[in-house]
Amino acid sequence: MRTTFAVIAGVGLLLTTVPMQAHHAFSAEFDISKQLKLQGTLTKWEMINPHSWFHIDVKTPDGKVEPWLIEGGSPNQLIRLGVTKKTLAVGVEFLVEGYQARDGTNKAVGRNFVFADGRSLFLGGSAPAAGATEGK
Amino acid sequence: MFHRFVAATALAGIVTALLLVAPTAAQTRKWTVPRTADGQPDLQGFWNNTTYITLERPKGVTTEFYTREEALQMMKRAADEEAEQTEPGTIADVHYDFTQFGLDKSQSPLALNLRTSLIVDPPDGKLPPLTDEGRRRAAARAEARKRMGALTDAVQNQSLMVRCILMDRNGPPMLAGAYNNNYQILQTAGTVMILVEMLHDPRIIPLGARPQLPQQVRQLEGSSRGRWEGDTLVIETANFTDKTAFQGSSENMRLTERFTRTSEDTITYRFTVDDPATWTRPWSAEVLWKKAIGPLFEHACHEGNRGLYNTLAGARAEEKRAAEKTPK
Asked: Do A71 and B307 touch (CB under 8 A)?
C-alpha cells in the first residue's frame, strides 16, 4: 500500500483534509489569496508548540536563496508515533503547497508537504503504533 | 488515496476496539480496582479522553445508546469527514493537514462506548434550558465582545486559547479538544495532580477536609478540593471567574467531578454542573478516559506562539497597505 502511494502521489493527486478545531484561525494568520508552491531544502525543523516550524531554503529563478518559514502541526503526536528530530535530515528537499502570511514576509502555512520522490512528509496512520495504546 | 488509507487503518482499530466495548460480566468480576501503596484507589498513569461522541445528542437520535453497528457508522462518518478533501482557495483549506501530523482523532487512542451523547442527565442528552438570567448574560457578553472591536485589534481580543492561557482540555470540567488530549494523574497522600499535556498545566487538588479558598479569591480554573467516596475520587470546584464560561456558565458555577477506575485501562469521568444562574436544572455528562502512551511531552505554547504574533502583524500590515492605497 505504501509503495502504491509513493508511485501515484503527485502533488496534484493528494487529497487534503478538512481542518478540525484548531488552536487559532489560520486564515487570520495566512492569506487565502496568496496560494504558493515552494520547493526547498530543509535547514532546521523546530519541533515546538503550539505548532511546529520548518525552515527551508528556496532557490529563486535568478539563482538567489530565500529562507522561508513553514508552519505545520503540533509535534507531540508525531513523537508518540516514533518521529524524532533525526527523522528529517537537514538538506532534505521537499515541496510545500500552502498560503503566505498576511504580513507579507517569507512565512507560510504548509497545506501539503511532499518529498521530491512523491512521498508525503510523515506517514500519519501508517507510522508504527498509530492509534495504539500501551501499558504504563 | 493516502488519506483513505489513513482512515481505513484507523477504522480497523476502531472496529477492533468496539468489539471490546462492554466486557462480559465474567470479565468485570475478575477485575478489582488497583491500590496505591498507601491504600488509595490507583488512578495513576497516562490517560487520553479523545472521543467522537458529542456533548449533546445529535438531532434525530432518540436512544441513550447506539447499537455497535450504529456507533461504528457514526465514527466512520466522523473519520471520513476528517479525511475529506478541502477546496484550494477556501478558508477551510488554509491549514496544515492534521493527518500528516497524526492529529486527527482516528489516530488517537479512543475510549469507546456506545453512548449517543456525553450528557447523561437530562435524559434527553441535551443541555437544560437557559434561565432568563442566563439568556440576559449571554446577550450582554456578546454585546461586550462586540464593543471590544475586531479580534485582531488587540491581543486581549483573542481568546484565552489562542493566547495559550487556557484550553478546553484544562477545564475544569476536562473535555477533549481536537488533539493532544493527554493527561497524567499522580497521587500522594494528601494531593492529586492531574497534569494536562496542553499548556503543560498541572492541576493540583488537595484532598480531605480543607475548605475552599475564600469567596473573593477567584481563579480561571476555580478552587478545587477532593475526597474519596469509596473507590471514586470526587472533586468539587467553585470560585470561577467571569473570564471563562463553560457552555455559557456563570462564575458561580459549582462543578462536581467523579473519577472512577472502571477497568485496567479505563477511568469513567462523570461531572455535574450546578449553576442555577444559567440553567433551569443541574446537568451531568460522562466521558471515558483511556489508558494512553506516556510520557507527556512539553507544550510550551506561549513561548512558541508565533501564530498570535503573525496574526496581529498581518492585520497591521494590511491596515498599512490599505492606508497607502487611500488617496490623501
From this structure: yes
Q: A14 and chain B: CB distance < 8 Å anywhere? A: yes
Contact in structure between A70 and A33 (CB atoms under 8 Å):
no
The three cell numbers of residue B72 are 461504528
> Does residue A62 sit at the B interface (CB-CB below 8 Å)?
no
Query: Minimal Cα–Cα distance from A59 to chain B, Å?
Result: 23
Q: The complex's ipTM?
A: 0.86
Per-residue pLDDT tens digits of chain B, which is 328 residues long:
334 444 455 555 565 556 555 544 555 567 899 999 999 999 999 999 999 999 999 999 999 999 999 999 999 999 888 877 788 888 888 988 888 888 988 888 888 899 999 999 999 999 999 999 999 999 999 999 999 999 999 999 999 999 999 998 999 999 999 899 999 999 999 999 999 999 999 999 999 988 999 999 999 999 999 999 999 999 999 999 999 999 999 999 999 999 999 999 999 999 999 999 999 999 999 999 999 989 999 999 999 999 999 999 999 999 999 999 987 6
The whole-model pTM stands at: 0.87
Tell me, what DSSP letter sits at residue A86?
G
C-alpha–C-alpha distance, residues A1 and A11, integer Å: 18
Q: Do B101 and A53 touch (CB under 8 A)?
A: no
Q: What is the 3-state secondary structure (H, E, C) of chain B?
A: CHHHHHHHHHHHHHHHHHHHCCCCHHHHHHCCCCECCCCCECCCEEEECCCCCCCCCCCCCCCCECCHHHHHHHHHHHHHHHCCCCCCCCHHHCCCCHHHHCCCHHHCCCCCCCECCCEEECCCCCCCCECHHHHHHHHHHHHHHHHCCCCCCCHHHCCCCCCCCCCCCCCCCCCCCCCCCEEEEEECCCEEEEEECHHHEEEEEEECCCCCCCCCCCCCCCEEEEEEECCEEEEEEECCCCCCCHHHCCCCCEEEEEEEEEECCEEEEEEEEECCCCECCCEEEEEEEEECCCCCCCCCCCCCCHHHHHHHHHHHHHHHHHHHHCCC
Cα-based distances in Å from B298 to A50, A127, B294: 10, 21, 12
Domains of chain A are 2-9+34-123 (2.40.50.1010)
Question: Hey, is the C-beta of A37 within 8 angstroms of any chain B C-beta?
Answer: no
Say if the Cβ atoms of B308 and A24 lie within 8 Å. Answer: yes
Backbone angles phi, psi at B311, to 5 degrees: -65, -45
